[in-house]
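User: quick one - fold this with NAX bound?
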Amino acid sequence: SKKPVRVAVTGAAGQIGYALLFRIASGEMLGKDQPVILQLLEIPDEKAQKALKGVMMELEDCAFPLLAGMEAHSDPMTAFKDTDYALLVGSRPRGPGMERAELLAINGAIFTAQGKALNAVASRNVKVLVVGNPANTNAYIAMKAAPDLPRKNFTAMLRLDHNRALSQIAAKTGKAVASIKKLTVWGNHSPTMYADYRFATIDGASVKDMINDQEWNANVFLPTVGKRGAAIIEARGLSSAASAANAAIDHMRDWALGTNGEWVTMGIPSNGEYGIPKDVMFGFPVTCEGGEYKIVEGLAIDAFSQECINKTLAELQGEQDGVKHLV
Ligand code: NAX
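Assistant: Sure. Structure tokens for the protein plus NAX:
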């Protein structure tokens, strides 16, 4: 049987954590033959640590055959020790009335410390996924704080946007979600993201031709996907949690186990592809194989798409500018 791998999860007592940990422990992320050791990080706050203990009691009570060990931590320097996978979920998302500078300062501190800890103690092959918002910029900060780790090990979650786009297209075309191939989402995990179905196919046929409605694309589809997070909050009174956890599982599973040539979306540091400046943490179409992702290159970018990409890039560069002093 396989040797256990170490999976660190931050914000483990939060609502995404609660929808995520049980699925990791049951083998849905890394395979039904891969034992895992969970290294769980929460803030030192007594209530958070107590809640974390409660989640761990429930994990014990599942008696998962693949759960080879479990640890509670309040310090990233111990939580990330030798970790093979790190899911950075805990952060301080923007609250009502919160200034941008405040948001960036708080998260700058969290993700600088966590990047440094990963740099110091994690496996040199650690795969890092940042879920906590602002996800792309937090991933960028962590990457910059970890100069001894390969840049490519740091990724941000665009998969929820990707999955949201898939389900909107399935509803519009009346086709099964699983039949949709070659969809992607460019840019920032924010309402400026650009979900792009120009290359998408269903049973080999072009989705763009099938829909053939640029009005719907610009005025219904993109705003629906972009504002879906806000719509969930409005309906549920809480932000997306199970769907976010599901997207995190999808992202890590595909990165680790491969996509068999299928496209998925990952937020990854640019190497200059599609004119995106180096290091910008940007949503790109990728395929995964052998534990590595590869950008799908050579796609034509039309005027409308370029405009959308420029807009989401400008937002990301603005965020990056706001943390210049940290990186
Ligand atoms: P919760 O507030 O339920 O949980 C967050 C947990 O993180 C809390 O228990 C808190 O104590 C902990 N935490 C905060 N700072 C920490 C730190 N420095 N180290 C360790 N733990 C820390 O939020 P939840 O609903 O779970 O959402 C978590 C994050 O995901 C938020 O930033 C949220 O905005 C973001 N999201 C990102 C999405 C994406 O697609 N990238 C979608 C869903 C979600 O909105």
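One thing worth noting: Residues 10-11, 13-17, 41-43, 48, 89-91, 93, 110, 131-133, 135, 157, 160, 189, 239-241, 244 surround NAX (CB under 6 Å).
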